Amino acid sequence: MIDKSAFHSLSYGMYVIGTRSEGKDFGCVANTFAQVTSSPLQVSVALNKENATTAALRAAGRFTASCLSEDASMELIGTFGFRSSTELDKFAQHASSRDAADMPYVAEACCAWFSAKVTGELDLGTHVLFIGEVEESQKVEGAASPMTYSFYHQVKGGKTPPKASSYLGDEQPVSALASVREGSEDESAAASKVEDAAPKVGWRCTICGHIEYVDELPDDFECPICGVGKKMFERVEL
Fold first, then answer.
1. Which of 16, 31, 67, 216 is a good FRET partner for 74, with 20 to 30 A between their CA atoms?
2. 222 Cβ contact partners less than 8 Å away, ≥ 6 residues apart
3. pLDDT at residue 117, rounded to an integer
4. Does the bond joining 218 to the residue before it have cis omega, within 30 degrees of 0?
5. What's the whole-model pTM score?
6. For residue 27, which of 104, 102, 95 has the smallest C-alpha distance?
């Protein structure tokens, strides 16, 4: 028996993987970036084969990893996590910079960044695991704490993109009280505050989990996080 809920106990960070191929920047969100050896300093990241970033990274042979901080906006995460680099210049939408090899990395809400040259890869079926030797790295002084995947889900109310390595297909959007510990002294006060502040009706994006607090969505409405249209929203009562 496999209890999928057990996987929710694994610890991850939130990273933007960047690369550049044929004069164009590519990037996507990944939670699988990790250090794998210390001598030499090597890192790894698993990316879905269907991502445009995966093909671009393979062609470039290089990539960056921007470690997002807890103050990263859902707009930033939505840009890199729920949009395609083939239809949008993602790095142009947010503050960014480049490493010595001209690879892009996020300079907004970033607490550290790494630049690596690919030294190997492993076919994982739906994903490719890239191994890279770190050639540059920098910690951003004064940045907020690194965002964990748990923080993204429980505090930010985010969802896992279907192409992510950790996607299990059984996620439910997190409620407004997800960050309030059960039985805490602040629970009743927080519940009262949410009840007073939030409308009774909202529309939830079935792709990224964003909730728009209106009675009705206009026909031309687009999700501010992932860009999908009205048809991808479901009505919820709060």
1. 216
2. 228, 229
3. 98
4. no
5. 0.74
6. 104
